[in-house]
Amino acid sequence: MAPQLHQRPPFRAEHLGSLLRPNELLDTKLAFEAGKIPESQLTAVEDKEVKDIVATQKKLGYAAISDGEYRRHMFWGTFFPGLDGFEEVNNVDVDDFRPYAPDIAAFLEAGHKPGESVICTGKIKHVGSTYIDQFKYLASQVPAEEVGNLKITLAAPNWYHLRYREGKAYPKSVYTNDEDYFGDIAKAYQAELKILYDAGCRNVQFDDPNLAYFCSEKFLNGFKEDPLNVYTADDMFEKYIKQYNDCFVNLPADMHVGVHLCRGNFVGSRHFSEGGYDRIAIKLFQELNVHTYYLEYDTPRAGGFEPLKFLPTHKNVILGVVTSKFATLEDKEEMKNRVIDAAKFIAEGNNISLDAALNQVGVSPQCGFASHREGNAIDWDGMINKLKLVRDIANDIWPNQA
């Protein structure tokens, strides 16, 4: 049987999970970290703010509701620190990092040593979900029939591999090669996805800047020139694709998984890398076993729509044509035309009609509004206006569709 298009989720109007934190929430987190209030007080404020942001999303007409990542400091959350075999450390030797990895390079160019990190110190094992209670609270805020629409975001399985130079991601005394290391990470994700599924979760989005780094000539040149590397960048990209697919072994048929590719979203709304999807499109769209791609397309740094010719007919693409980094509103008609232009390439690549291609498409902001808790260079009203614009674009192109 040919693979089927999985929809609802995703939806015609999407956002990428992270939303601006209200000041009360930020202040309360700081007070807790300073030891001024008990954790129970922080949890109470988080609960209240999650409840409010759920109501806000429903009012704006979004079905794939998230908790705004309100309980996280950074978008990647607590998955890796929650595993046996990983430890959070504050002083990693700067020479252990790949200096050409775009996010690491940005820190170094600004004169900052990369801060805290998570490193592998022993055999990796899943010992309980750090997200399950968060998901259950989110689920309690919507009717039972809407729980399957809720979105939870997870860190990329390669997140703590690419940032480290060859031989530094794990002790050789623990793992003799990448395959064994990746294999245990995949098993950990399999366990996490099952726990979430059993709690009613049906909609997972992996946030992965690393895959987009393989579009960057600057990164690729650095990778090629690094004498420690034993693989080419193409080899490494293929290993990451396989790692993802191994995470999805035994994935239930009714569980939707997507991947968001981003070129950086940090303090001051800065990005880290540039380059179109052309170089990775075939492997990304045809070999990675996800249902949906959430792609950054708000500026020329992400290239053109031509790579979408390689998107198969059983997969979706959510076009991030609206920026989340700044408040200036895009022109709605111009954005609608861009969506149509993108769909034309899907139609051309698959020899299908434009209407059929549009059925594989949705629209979103290009990234989250607060990948780090302090948020982008945009205020609350700016965020709401962006979300309204995305919903309006979707309503015009796909009337009466969630």
TrEMBL record:
Superkingdom of this protein's organism: Eukaryota
What Gene Ontology molecular function terms does this protein carry? 5-methyltetrahydropteroyltriglutamate-homocysteine S-methyltransferase activity; zinc ion binding
Name the InterPro entries for this protein: Met_Synth_C/arc, UROD/MetE-like_sf
Record-annotated Cobalamin-independent methionine synthase MetE C-terminal/archaeal domain positions: 182-394
Note the Pfam families from the entry.
Meth_synt_2
One GO BP annotation is:
methionine biosynthetic process
Q: What is this protein called?
A: Cobalamin-independent methionine synthase MetE C-terminal/archaeal domain-containing protein
Source organism per entry reads Penicillium arizonense
What does the organism's lineage look like at the top? Eukaryota, Fungi, Dikarya, Ascomycota, Pezizomycotina
